[in-house]
């Protein structure tokens, strides 16, 4: 399967909150740039245009010579995996994302639908024996030299999953007591961001901090996670959950909120009318997002199911010559 190398530091622990987030090294391209795709809410055995989105991802991935893929979850519908041997893993992942350009590392955490099955199945090293691209943990850091990407397990933040689960059963092994889990995770995220010297700081979670889609803003993340992102100069927060493509600029900081949750089933016309401050782009169809970073520039591009560019956003980084300071 493709050529990539990675170094695992620390112990991979899917069963408990660690004292420090696991770290993975992901080298940049030879020219110092970094390119990757972002896809979310996808695993439906090819249905709801998942296969068509995957085909276009392959084309764009080849064009950009991507280094890896980020999944913003939900990974497998409707109720995650039943266990490591669940055929849905191959039917919704291995057999769908077959393009040569997509044979790179896939970094993922868990979405709310993933917690409705055997959550620990997706964290199991057994899946990497079936498909070596797959890497899924609760929370972790990818050190890509130019950028550090902190993946955050946002599902336990949402109180309603615990207080009013409706007809759903969630696999909370390794999470309870919830308050302790969240407190420890926030400390780990804050420390990882504070100690990062990367040019670009990116945080990935399943749930939106800002969105005008079906679910809207996530109050628990706005209250607990967003202040940490602002205090540590995070550039991008990337998420899924709302089945759309979306770009919102924070009105109080440089943070860009980027939703890529349109990997299969989309919600046409399901738009919130409130809190549209900073809205740059919204699309209620299927598609995905690409990210290209250099020392000085970032380019974010959203594509639809036909590979057509819908929205492009460019940013520049100030260069500081520390030798003259």
Automatic annotation (TrEMBL):
Cellular component, GO, one term: extracellular region
Q: Which residues cross the membrane?
A: none
Q: Where in the cell is it found?
A: Secreted
What GO molecular function annotation could you give as one example from this UniProt entry?
A: acid phosphatase activity
Reaction(s) the record says it catalyses: a phosphate monoester + H2O = an alcohol + phosphate
Which keywords does UniProt give here?
Glycoprotein, Hydrolase, Iron, Metal-binding, Secreted, Signal, Zinc
Look up the domain of life of the source. Eukaryota
Renumbered to this chain, the signal peptide range is: 1-18
Note the CDD domains from the entry. Answer: MPP_ACP5 (cd07378)
Q: Which family does it belong to?
A: Belongs to the metallophosphoesterase superfamily. Purple acid phosphatase family.
Query: By what name is this protein known?
Result: Purple acid phosphatase
Q: What is the lineage of its organism?
A: Eukaryota, Viridiplantae, Streptophyta, Embryophyta, Tracheophyta
């Amino acid at each position: 399967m493709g050529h990539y190398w990675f170094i695992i530091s620390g112990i991979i622990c899917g069963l408990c909150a660690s004292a420090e987030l696991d770290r993975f090294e992901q080298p940049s391209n030879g020219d110092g740039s970094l390119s990757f795709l972002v896809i979310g809410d996808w695993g439906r055995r090819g249905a709801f245009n998942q296969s068509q989105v995957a085909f276009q991802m392959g084309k764009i991935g080849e064009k950009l010579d991507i280094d890896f893929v980020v999944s913003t979850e939900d990974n497998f519908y409707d109720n995650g995996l039943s266990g490591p041997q669940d055929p849905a893993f191959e039917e919704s992942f291995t057999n769908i994302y077959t393009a040569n350009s997509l044979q790179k590392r896939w970094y993922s955490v868990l979405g709310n639908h993933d917690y409705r099955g055997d959550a620990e199945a997706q964290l199991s090293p057994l899946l990497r024996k079936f498909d070596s691209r797959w890497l899924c943990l609760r929370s972790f850091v990818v050190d890509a030299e130019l950028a550090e990407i902190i993946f955050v397990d946002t599902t336990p933040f949402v109180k309603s999953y615990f207080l009013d689960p409706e007809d759903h059963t969630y696999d909370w092994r390794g999470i309870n007591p919830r308050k302790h889990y969240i407190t420890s995770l926030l400390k780990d995220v804050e420390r990882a961001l504070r100690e990062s010297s990367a040019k670009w700081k990116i945080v990935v979670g399943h749930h939106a901090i800002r969105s005008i889609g079906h679910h809207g803003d996530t109050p628990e993340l706005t209250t607990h996670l967003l202040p940490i992102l602002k205090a540590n100069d995070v550039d991008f927060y990337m998420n899924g959950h709302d089945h759309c493509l979306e770009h919102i600029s924070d009105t109080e900081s440089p943070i860009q909120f980027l939703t890529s949750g349109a990997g299969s089933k989309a919600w046409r016309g399901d738009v919130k009318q409130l809190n549209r401050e900073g809205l740059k782009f919204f699309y209620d169809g299927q598609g995905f997002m690409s990210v290209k970073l250099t020392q000085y520039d970032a380019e974010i591009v959203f594509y639809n199911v036909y590979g057509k560019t819908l929205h492009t956003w460019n940013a520049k980084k100030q260069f500081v010559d520390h030798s003259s300071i």
